[in-house]
Each structure stands twice: as structure tokens, then as C-alpha cells.
Specification:
The protein is an alpha/beta fold and 764 residues long. Among the domains are: 118 residues, no CATH class; 185 residues, Rossmann fold. Helices cover 53% and strands 10% of the residues. The strands form four sheets. A six-stranded mixed β-sheet has the order 8-7-9-13-14-15, with helices on both faces. Helix 25 links the parallel strand 7 and strand 8. The radius of gyration is 29 Å and the shape is globular.
């Protein structure tokens, strides 16, 4: 949505510093009277040579958009003691002119200057400048890191006004990464603390933009209304705020009142009419009313306009792809495919700069991939559909699709995220994948995301890979599938949703072997054990279902040569977990190593790491929130998914009876404890996607370990237990027989390894 206001943040912050005691005053000038500030301070500088007054005049010119005057003053200041302030001004000028590399260079020089002089205010301001420049360049991780530094400095200085500016810049970085929930939470906290109407206007606009991107248009309009009221109370209302409100309201009215949307755009100042966002929105509105030629003209203009930041160009290219596809015909499809592939390359490049939050980034950037998949599927080009999915898998784009409905993530600024490897695994070919999966049966299902142009006809596609062959089918309406997925996740006992999704995901036919399921996007959260056939019976009765999260394994499979390990009630506050541990120990026999209260060893981190090559790891313990992750709580500390991956901790089979052990930062399961184990090399993980009652968990686990084949075929053993629980549901009051309990337990499997031909060294 409208982001011009982000660039204005820096100018507003710099002008704020005019009133700070650390800088000389140029007379009693009211805050916001930039014209008078420029005149008085420039005159003072000319008369006295006071560089502080010269810097103040330059900042005022920046606020008024008079970049030539600001640039000239900055160059005069470069050789004096205020050279750090001069580079700040030059950074802003370069940013407004679209020279992001130069902007970052000047901001970095300013940072060095203010570090040498010990100017804490200058340092915090410089980090904001760096964040703005990195954000505009599309380097979102760098933008977030710099914004965090600025916010830390603002908090140390105990200046509410400065904190607001830092929060706004930080929220921009988070929002561009797709982490709108974290951005909105940060802004909500700042709104509660702010009192200045000018600050509140900025904060409400940004929060409204977060609400829009989360699909909450009603809440967004409330925030935009609050922003308008706050801006009117501001002594000098900010035109950028007013413009942003108008454009974002136009986005909201696109669907419910297109005339009002157009009116909002027509009322914008002439200087805004060639803005890339305005042109893109005009293109959408034209396409919505069937004026395809007019839409193409707007989109063609948008494609050559200097964007406000690096996150806009791919949207324009994706829009042109959808428009070409809507026009139809062989030429339309060829143009659409070319545009989709170009947009995909742009998104993949941007994703590399958002590693710490790539899960969220993908949720708002996978449109081109879904669009190309739909185009290829419509033409029966199923091998090429698989090739696109392989591209997603190789770049980790497949591994994350954050959705606001999955509100399990918690924000933190100090979470240690491991850096990406400097060795990039080359993507596998279609033949590689078909060969690797030859001995297994796999279905891939994807509900295409909503289009911006020609929306309403999105479909669900299913690919089946079996015996070295790939086949595909259009299996239904995507919006219906997404609703069923929401319904079944909320209530695994919803039989209508279970039957509808069962028809889509599980192919018809006679009972057979294990079926592996890779569910992409919104369908990734579906509890597979709850799926039913048309006759109402559980689909796992025909095929045990194993969820996979990728098409290829990244690390070698665990051998399971060590003894089985049981971790039970680590902190001595879960009596049912202690009972479960004792039950599992009895089922495993005397060779099992059990840790927990009442046993020889406490359930510590060291004891857990000792199970790295165990045949079985069974954990009955608390799962709690640690930063942005769900973490396993042991006697002497927590263990989160990041540490599991870092240590390559991989027992052969892992049973995580803990509540929420499969709960993740995205719909598809990535970011969970279960996914971390699979990524490290574990073959099979049994985990839960929600809270389960203690008695129900104990009952189900007792029955699971009573199955003779739990070691050799855990998916079939668990499916047998779940069918028995379901069969008893009508006549039993036992909570374990209810779908919300037994369907919470899923089997997740490790995909096959694909031989790596070579590795490509890359620079971070």
C-alpha cells in the first residue's frame, strides 16, 4: 500500500532535531514552520558561520522538498565540523532521487562521524537513515537490523517522539517482509504511548496499512479515519499523511465502491498522478470494469516509473501477467508466462534479503508462482508445474506461507536467526525428483492464491507422483477449499469439510500403501487424519497419510543406532506426562533411557542432546513460546527449532506428545519443532498441531505403543489407533475418541535424498 510516507519519516525526524537543545537555535521558530526556519537559519549561517544553523536550514529545505537547496548547503558543510550532518542531508537527497546505494553510503559516513563525536542522537538518526535506504533498496533484513538499532537508541534517550519515528521505520521493514502481525503489534503499542497528534497520524496510517495487507479492510478504515483526525489536530498537517490516507482508502473502495476509489485518486495532487502505486491501482480499476486496453496503458506507465521501494516492480509485472492471461489466446498466454517468470525472479531476489522472516515474506509474494502454476495446469503442462514447485522448494519459498489466521508466532527483536549457508544447493530436475520418489506415492495439492486481475476463478490442483510418473488434475474451487481448510482446522470433527477436502487431497481407489501429502499454502494446515471419504469413513483407512514439507531432504537420514530415550515431565509439574513416560518406558523395555523426576537422571538439555542418534525419542513435556518460536521446556532451559537444526539433532523416530509440537510460524508446518527434527535428519515425527487433554494423549499413546508395527510402520500403526478412536466416538464419552483429540496427532515424514551434482558458492 501507500509507502511515500516512509521516506517522509526521515525528514520529519531531522526537522524534529531542530528543537533539540544539542543544536543551536535560529530564533524562536514554531515547529513545522519550515519556510521561516530555512530563511532565518540560512541568514544566521551566512552571517555567523554557525554550521549548526546551516544544517538546520538544510533540514528545513528537505522537509519542503527543495532538494537542490538542501544539497547545496550540505556540500558547503562537508569540510567543517558538521560533516556528519551534511552526509545525513545528502543521504536524504539521494534517497528522494532514487539513488539508494549513494543514500546508504552517505548514511554510513554520517554514522562513523557521529560515532567519533559521541553524538547519540546523531547515531540513532543515522541508523534510521540506513534503514530507510536499505528498505527502499529491498534489503529488508538490513533495514530491520538498522531500525532495531535506531529504536534501541531512542529508548536509551527516553525521547517519545524519536521512538515513534523508529517504530514507524521498523514497522515498515516488518510489513515489507510480510510480518504484518508483528508490525501491527509494534504500532499498537506505540499508539497507546503516543500523545502528539502528528505522531499519532503517522502511527495510525501505518497500522491501517498493516490491517489492509492482512485482509482486515474494516479495521484498516478505522485506523485511517483516526489518522485523518490526528493529522487535522497537528499544528502543521502533513500532506504526505493526507495523500497516503487517500490512496489507501482507494484500495479499500476498489471492490465495494469503484467510483469512490477513482474519486480519491482524482483528488490527489498532480505530482502524485505518476506514482507507481497510483498507476497500478488505476490499472486494476480499469481491468475490473473490463477496460483492458486502458489497464495495459496504466501498467505500462507504472513499469517505467521510479518505484518508492524495491518491493513494487514485481507487483507491476505480476499484474501485467494476469492481464495478459485474462486477454487469452496463445499470445496472451505466452506473454503471461514471460511476465510470471520475470516476477518470480524478482521475488526470489527480494526473499534473499528477508531470511529471518522469509515465512512471512512468502505469504504476500507467492502470487506469481501460483499464477504460473495455474497457467501451466490449465494447459495440462504438469511436468512444468512440478518444475515450478521444484523452484519453490530449492529456494525455500515452498517452506513457508505465513497467514494471519495462524497467530502462534510471537515477536522478538533479539532472536538469534542462523545465517543462510554460503553454499546453495542446485535445484533438482523433474527427472531427479521422479526417480527419488519412485518407491513412494506422493500427492501435491495447491489452492491458488487470489488474483488481483480476473479474480474469482482460482482453482485447486493436485499432482500425483507414482512409479516415476507425474499426473495432474484440476480438483475444485480454491476459495471453497480454503474455507474448508479453515473449518476443519477449527473443528476436525466437521464432516462436510472433511469429506470435501478428502475428495480433493486423497485420490479415489482401492486401499493401498502409505500416501505422502505435500500441501502448499492454505491447505497446509489441514489435519490430514480428519479427512474422510464420501461414505464418511476416514481416508486413513485406505491410505495412511504422511505429511511432507518438501520434495528433497537437505541432510542425511539418522541411523537410529542408539538406545531409545524418553523425556517425561522435565519440570515436575505435569503428572500425566510422568504417567505417559512410565507407560512408554514399560512398552520399550529395559533398554530405554528415561529422564525426569523419579528417574535416575533429570530431563536436561544434555540428556536430550544425548538422544541425537536414538532409535526413538519420546517427549512428554511442556511446549511454550520462546521469542518467535515454540520451544520444548526442559528442566534446565528451553530448546527451540533453531537449535535443533544447528545441532543436527536427529533421532530416527520422534514422538512429540507435547501440545503444539507441530504448531508453526506458517500454514505448512515450517518453523515447528517437528519440522526442525525432519530438517535435521529424523525419518518420522509424530506431533500435535494443537492442545490435547492429558488423559486423551495418554490413552492414544498407550494404544499406539501397543501396536506391533509402530517401529516399522508408525503411520499405519497410528492410523489404526485413530480409526478405532473414531469408531468408538458415538458410544463413548472418552475425550480421546473425539476428533479434536485424536486428529491433533499427525505423522510427518522426511522426503528422499536427491544426489547433489555440484554446489554453487555464493556471496551473502
Amino acid at each position: 500500500m501507500m509507502d511515500r510516507i516512509a521516506v517522509g519519516t526521515l525528514a520529519g525526524l531531522l526537522i524534529w532535531q531542530l528543537t533539540h537543545p544539542s543544536m543551536p537555535l535560529c530564533g524562536e521558530i514554531q515547529y513545522g514552520d519550515w519556510q521561516r526556519t530555512a530563511q532565518v537559519c540560512l541568514a544566521s549561517y551566512e552571517q555567523t558561520g554557525n554550521e549548526g544553523d546551516g544544517a538546520r536550514a538544510g533540514y528545513a529545505y528537505m522537509q519542503m522538498g527543495q532538494l537542490d537547496q538542501a544539497d547545496a548547503l550540505a556540500h558547503r558543510l562537508l569540510t567543517g565540523a558538521s560533516y556528519g550532518d551534511a552526509h545525513v542531508i545528502l543521504s536524504y537527497v539521494a534517497l528522494r532521487q532514487g539513488f539508494t546505494s549513494a543514500a546508504r553510503m552517505h548514511a554510513t559516513i554520517a554514522l562513523v562521524a557521529h560515532t567519533l563525536s559521541g553524538d547519540e542522537y546523531g547515531l540513532a538518526r543515522d541508523y534510521l537513515s540506513i534503514s530507510e535506504a536499505a528498505w527502499k533498496a529491498g534489503d529488508f533484513t538490513a533495514a530491520l537490523d538498522a531500525a532495531d538499532q535506531a529504536l534501541t537508541g531512542a529508548e536509551r534517550l527516553h525521547d517519545p517522539h524519536f521512538e515513534v519515528r523508529a517504530v514507524v521505520v521498523r514497522a515498515d521493514a516488518l510489513r515489507r517482509m510480510g510480518d504484518t502481525s508483528a508490525a501491527a503489534a509494534t504500532l499498537t503499542t506505540a499508539i497507546a504511548r503516543a500523545s502528539d497528534p502528528c505522531d499519532l497520524a503517522w502511527l495510525h496510517v501505518k497500522k491501517g496499512m498493516c490491517q489492509m495487507e492482512a485482509g482486515q479492510d474494516g479495521l484498516a478504515k478505522l485506523d485511517l479515519d483516526d489518522a485523518d483526525r490526528a493529522n487535522r489536530r497537528c499544528p502543521h498537517p502533513d500532506q504526505d499523511v493526507s495523500t497516503s490516507i487517500a490512496i489507501n482508502l482507494a484500495w479499500i473502495h476498489r471492490w465495494d465502491d469503484p467510483s469512490a476509489a477513482l474519486a480519491s485518486l482524482e483528488d490527489l495532487p498532480g505530482s502524485e498522478q505518476d506514482d507507481v502505486e497510483v498507476l497500478l491501482l488505476r490499472g486494476y480499476l480499469a481491468a475490473d470494469r473490463g477496460a483492458l486496453a486502458e489497464s495495459e496503458r496504466y501498467l505500462a506507465r507504472a513499469a517505467v516509473v521510479e518505484p518508492l521501494d524495491a518491493d513494487w516492480p514485481w507487483e507491476v509485472v505480476r499484474a501485467r501477467a494476469e492481464l495478459s492471461e485474462l486477454r487469452g489466446g496463445p499470445l496472451g498466454d505466452l506473454c503471461a508466462e514471460a511476465h510470471y517468470r520475470r516476477a518470480m525472479a524478482m521475488v526470489a531476489a527480494l526473499r534473499a534479503t528477508a531470511r529471518a522472516r522469509s515465512a512471512y515474506f512468502v505469504s504476500s509474494h507467492r502470487g506469481p508462482f501460483d499464477g504460473l502454476i495455474a497457467l501451466l495446469a490449465r494447459n495440462g503442462r504438469w511436468r512444468e508445474v512440478l518444475a515450478v514447485i521444484l523452484d519453490l522448494d530449492a529456494s525455500d519459498m515452498l517452506r513457508a506461507t505465513a497467514a494471519e489466521v495462524m497467530a502462534r508466532d510471537r515477536e522478538t527483536r533479539d532472536m538469534d536467526i542462523p545465517a543462510s549457508s554460503s553454499v546453495m544447493t542446485p535445484p533438482a530436475t523433474v527427472e531427479d525428483v521422479l526417480s527419488a520418489w519412485r518407491s513412494r506415492d506422493l500427492v501435491i495439492v495447491i489452492a491458488a492464491s487470489e488474483r488481483q486481475i480476473g479474480s474469482g476463478g482460482e482453482r485447486v490442483y493436485r499432482l500425483r507422483i507414482s512409479d516415476g510418473q507425474v499426473a495432474g488434475a484440476d480438483i475444485g474451487d480454491a476459495s471453497t477449499a480454503r474455507k474448508w481448510a479453515d473449518d476443519l482446522f477449527a473443528d476436525p470433527g466437521d464432516r462436510d469439510a472433511a469429506r470435501g477436502l478428502g475428495r480433493m487431497i486423497v485420490p479415489s481407489g482401492a486401499a493401498g500403501g502409505t500416501l505422502h501429502v505435500l500441501a502448499i499454502g492454505a491447505l497446509g494446515k489441514v489435519p490430514l487424519p480428519a479427512l474422510r471419504d464420501d461414505d464418511g469413513s476416514l481416508s486413513i483407512g485406505r491410505h495412511p497419510l504422511v505429511r511432507v514439507l518438501a520434495l528433497r531432504a537437505k541432510h542425511p537420514e539418522a541411523s537410529g543406532a542408539g538406545a531409545s530415550v524418553v523425556i517425561a515431565d522435565p519440570r515436575g509439574d505435569l503428572p500425566s506426562a510422568a504417567k505417559e513416560g512410565a507407560m512408554v518406558a514399560a512398552a520399550l523395555g529395559p533398554g530405554a533411557q528415561v529422564s525426569g523426576p523419579g528417574w535416575a537422571f533429570p530431563a536436561t538439555r544434555v540428556r536430550l542432546w544425548g538422544a541425537s542418534n536414538a532409535e526413538l525419542l519420546h517427549v512428554a513435556a511442556h511446549v511454550g513460546v520462546r521469542g518467535r518460536w515454540n520451544a520444548l521446556r526442559l528442566a534446565d532451559g528451553d530448546v527451540d527449532p533453531v537449535e535443533i537444526i544447528q545441532r543436527r539433532f536427529a533421532p530416527r523416530i520422534a514422538v512429540l506428545a507435547s501440545c503444539g509440537s507441530a504448531a508453526a510460524t506458517d500454514e505448512e508446518g515450517w518453523g515447528s519443532l517437528a519440522a526442525a527434527l525432519l530438517g535435521a535428519g529424523t525419518s518420522v515425527v509424530i506431533a500435535t498441531d494443537r492442545s490435547v487433554g492429558d488423559a486423551a494423549s495418554l490413552s492414544l499413546m498407550r494404544d499406539f505403543y501397543a501396536q506391533s508395527d509402530w517401529r516399522t510402520d508408525p503411520a499405519r500403526a497410528l492410523a489404526r489407533v485413530q480409526q478405532a478412536m473414531d469408531a468408538r466416538a458415538a458410544a463413548s464419552r472418552d475425550d480421546a475418541t473425539k476428533a479434536r483429540s485424536w486428529a491433533a496427532f499427525s505423522v510427518l515424514g522426511r522426503p528422499p535424498e536427491i544426489p547433489v551434482r555440484s554446489a554453487v558458492n555464493t556471496l551473502e
